[in-house]
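hey so u asked for the seq, here:
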Amino acid sequence: MARTVFCQKLQKEAPGLDFQLYPGEIGQRIFDNISKEAWQQWQHKQTMLINEKKLNMMNPEHRTLLEEQMVGFLFENKEVEIEGYRPQQ
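ran it, structure tokens below
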């Protein structure tokens, strides 16, 4: 039987992640409160951010920026900040 969570992003019961994908306390929070569907949405946004802002994951400042955007997107209902990008209405 698939593990379900009440997804804070989607505000509904949905299949949860199979295992913790992100390290630390934030990773545990994601595992406990974010669905597979919401995580996939984040993965799409993350790819856009990395490409558009030319982020280097070896740079600690870039990783911090990405983590801040991830927390905002998944838990605070904030839209990802990408110049020139407008989400579909």
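The chain has a mean pLDDT of 91. Helices lie at 24-33, 36-52, 60-75.
lmk if thats what u needed
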